Each structure stands twice: as structure tokens, then as C-alpha cells.
């Protein structure tokens, strides 16, 4: 616990408080070759990961209702390895895109930021389309018929 000196500076009450070290920076390791700088576009990456995860979940829901996968590469992965293959495929694509954005962003900041934003926009498109398909086939079509 701290108290105030007459010159309005905090005064430590316990000797142990004098040995407190300032916190280390978050996001960095101190193991030499494992050290890496902070990621540049973390907010964009969170949105990118959210939309990518939603894409896998909504695609799986559509497939369970009798729909088809329109992406031929993803269709092959799903046919051969199922849901876990689709998750691994999407995870590898996300990792690839994030690494590209980081590498480009270290050399050209604006281009890297632009790539990250484009990745978010592109990953949001299949989610919007899938949501529209599900709403249409679950709510609109049964109400007509």
C-alpha cells in the first residue's frame, strides 16, 4: 500500500514493494530466436477468423440440409475428409492469409492493411450468402407452401 509524502510523491510502506519489477511487454517472448514482433492487424484478423469459422459452420449446416458446396477444392476436401478436413483446410487458408498480410505489412504498411481488410471482406461474402440461403429455405419457402 502506498502513502503520500509531503511533496506529493507516493511512498512505499513495505520494503518488499521496492523490489517490484515493471511488467514485461505483452506479446513478445524472450527466448531469442523465438522472439517475434507483435502482429500488425489484430483487429482485422479477429474478424477474418470469425467470418471464416462462421463459413465452415454455415456450410456444414447447409450440407446437412441437402445443399452442395460450390467451391470445387472445398468440395473435394469435404468429400474425402469430412468436417474435420474442412476445418483443417479453412485453418490452413486462414494461416496462409495472415502470414502473407504480416510479411507484406512489414515491408509496406498500407498494402498489408489493405490485404487484411480485403481478406475480411472476402471472407464475409460466403457468410452473408449462406445466411441468406438458410433464412430463405427455413423461413420463406415453408411459409409459401
Sequence-ordered SSE layout with sheet pairings:
Elements: E1 2-4, E2 10-12, H1 42-64, H2 72-107, H3 109-144
Antiparallel strand pairs: 1-2
Helix pairs in contact: 1-2, 1-3, 2-3
Walkthrough of the structure:
- The protein has 145 residues and is mainly alpha-helical.
- It has one domain.
- Helices cover 66% and strands 4% of the residues.
- It has 3 helices and 2 strands; from the N terminus they run E-E-H-H-H.
- It has helices at 42-64, 72-107, 109-144; strands at 2-4, 10-12.
- A two-stranded antiparallel ribbon has the order 1-2.
- A hairpin with a 5-residue loop joins strand 1 and strand 2.
- Helix 1 (42-64) runs antiparallel to helix 2, helix 1 (42-64) packs parallel to helix 3 and helix 2 packs antiparallel against helix 3.
- The chain is elongated and about 70 Å long.
Précis, in short:
Helix content is 66%, strand content 4%. It has 145 residues and is mainly alpha-helical.
Structural class: mainly alpha
Q: What's the N-to-C terminus distance?
A: 72 Å
Number of helices: 3
Could you spell the SSE succession in H and E letters? EEHHH
**Uncertain residue segments:** none
- Mean pLDDT value: 85
Number of domains: 1
Rough shape?
Answer: elongated
How helix-rich are the residues, as a percent range? 55-70%
Number of strands: 2
Amino acid at each position: 500500500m502506498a502513502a503520500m509524502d509531503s511533496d506529493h510523491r507516493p511512498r512505499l510502506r513495505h520494503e518488499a514493494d521496492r523490489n517490484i519489477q515493471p511488467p514485461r511487454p505483452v506479446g513478445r517472448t524472450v527466448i531469442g530466436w523465438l522472439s517475434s514482433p507483435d502482429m500488425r492487424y489484430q483487429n482485422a484478423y479477429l474478424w477474418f477468423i470469425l467470418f471464416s469459422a462462421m463459413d465452415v459452420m454455415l456450410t456444414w449446416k447447409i450440407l446437412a440440409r441437402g445443399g452442395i458446396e460450390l467451391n470445387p477444392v472445398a468440395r473435394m476436401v469435404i468429400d474425402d475428409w469430412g468436417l474435420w478436413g474442412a476445418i483443417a483446410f479453412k485453418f490452413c487458408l486462414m494461416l496462409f492469409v495472415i502470414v502473407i498480410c504480416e510479411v507484406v505489412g512489414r515491408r509496406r504498411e498500407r498494402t498489408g492493411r489493405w490485404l487484411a481488410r480485403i481478406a475480411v471482406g472476402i471472407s464475409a461474402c460466403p457468410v452473408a450468402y449462406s445466411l441468406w440461403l438458410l433464412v430463405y429455405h427455413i423461413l420463406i419457402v415453408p411459409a409459401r407452401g
